[in-house]
Specification:
binds adenosine-5'-diphosphate; Arc Repressor Mutant, subunit A; 2 domains; binds magnesium ion
C-alpha cells in the first residue's frame, strides 16, 4: 500500500453517492499521474480493497469493498494521530467489529460499524433506521442516499461526546467514515460485561444513576441490557449507535424497555 493506492481508494470512496460502480475513467479524470495506474488498480483488487465489474456502462468500473473502507478509516486515523497502530479483534457482533489499537503505547479501541450487516427488510425494522430517517427529515435531507454504517458511527460518536464528561462511558477520540476510536475499557484485556460477572448492589446503583444522567442530558440509550455494560473499576455504559433524543417519538417506550432490561439483569439481588 502506498499513497497512490490510497488516492485511488479515496476517489472511489468519494463517489459513493454518484455511482454504485465507479467507471475507471472517472478515477483517471481526477488524478494527474498515469504511470502504473493499472498496476495500482490490480493490486487494490488483489488486496481485496476493491471489486471489478467489467460490464457496467460497457466500460470497466470498480467498487470499494468493506475492507477498502476500513483501510481508509485506519489510514486517516493514523494520519490525524488518533492511533499509531491497530491490533487484534476484541469483539465482533452482528453490527460492529471492535478492534484493539495503540496510541503512544496506550490501548484504545476502534469500533467499525459493519456494512451489509442485515438484509434490507430487517434493517428497515431496526431502531437505527427509524432514528436516521427521523434525523434526515428534521434536517431536510430526504433525497440524498444515506450510508447507514456512517450514520450509526455519527450517532454513537455524538452520544459519547455529549455524555462522557458526566456519565461513565468510553471517551471518544475520533470518528472517520463508519468507524470511531474510543477509550479502551479494561486492564490489558477488555473488562468483562455485566452479563459475565456476579451482580452487586453498587453496580445497579451506578448504572441506574448514569442512565438517569444520560436522560437528563437528553439521550436515551435504546438498547440497554447486561450485554452493553462493562464492569471495570466503575460500570461503563457502551454501544450507543441506536440512541435517540428524549423527544424522539418512541422515546418513552424505549426508556421503559431499557429500565425493564436493567431490572431483569439485577433480578438476583
Ligand atoms: N471501549 C471498549 N473497550 C474495550 N472493549 C470494548 C469497548 N467497547 C466495546 N468493547 C467490546 O466489544 C464488544 C462489542 O461492542 P459493542 O459496542 O457492544 O458493539 P456490538 O454489540 O454492536 O457488537 C463488547 O461486548 C466489548 O466486549
Ligand atoms: Mg453491544
Amino acid at each position: 500500500m502506498d499513497t497512490r493506492d490510497i488516492t485511488i481508494l479515496r476517489i472511489i470512496d468519494g463517489l459513493w453517492e454518484t455511482y454504485e460502480w465507479v467507471p475507471v475513467i472517472e478515477i483517471k479524470d481526477r488524478i494527474t499521474w498515469r504511470i502504473r495506474f493499472n498496476q495500482h488498480i490490480k493490486s487494490l483488487e488483489k488486496l481485496g480493497l476493491i471489486g471489478w465489474n467489467k460490464s457496467t456502462y460497457g466500460e470497466p468500473a470498480v467498487k470499494i469493498t468493506e475492507k477498502g473502507i476500513d483501510t481508509l478509516a485506519v489510514w486517516d486515523f493514523k494520519k490525524h494521530g488518533v492511533i499509531d497502530d491497530i491490533g487484534n479483534v476484541i469483539g465482533e457482533g452482528k453490527e460492529a467489529v471492535v478492534v484493539y489499537a495503540l496510541k503512544d503505547n496506550e490501548p484504545r479501541v476502534i469500533k467499525f460499524h459493519k456494512y451489509y450487516s442485515a438484509e434490507f427488510h430487517k434493517l428497515k425494522r431496526s431502531l437505527s433506521y427509524s432514528v436516521i430517517n427521523w434525523w434526515r427529515k428534521k434536517i431536510g435531507r430526504d433525497i440524498r442516499p444515506i450510508d447507514f454504517p456512517r450514520a450509526k458511527a455519527q450517532i454513537e460518536y455524538h452520544a459519547l461526546q455529549k455524555l462522557h464528561k458526566h456519565v461513565t462511558v468510553p471517551e471518544p477520540f475520533g470518528i472517520n467514515r463508519h468507524a470511531i476510536v474510543m477509550e479502551f475499557i479494561g486492564d490489558k484485556i477488555p473488562a468483562p460485561l455485566l452479563s459475565q460477572v456476579k451482580k452487586e448492589p453498587w453496580m445497579k446503583e451506578e448504572i441506574m444513576e448514569d442512565y438517569q444522567k444520560a436522560l437528563d442530558l437528553g439521550v436515551v440509550h435504546g438498547d440497554m441490557s447486561e450485554f452493553n455494560v462493562m464492569v471495570h473499576d466503575k460500570t461503563y455504559l457502551i454501544d450507543w449507535p441506536q440512541s435517540v433524543p428524549t423527544d424522539f417519538i418512541s422515546a418513552e417506550e424505549l426508556i421503559k424497555r431499557d429500565k425493564k432490561n436493567l431490572k431483569f439483569a439485577f433480578r438476583s439481588l
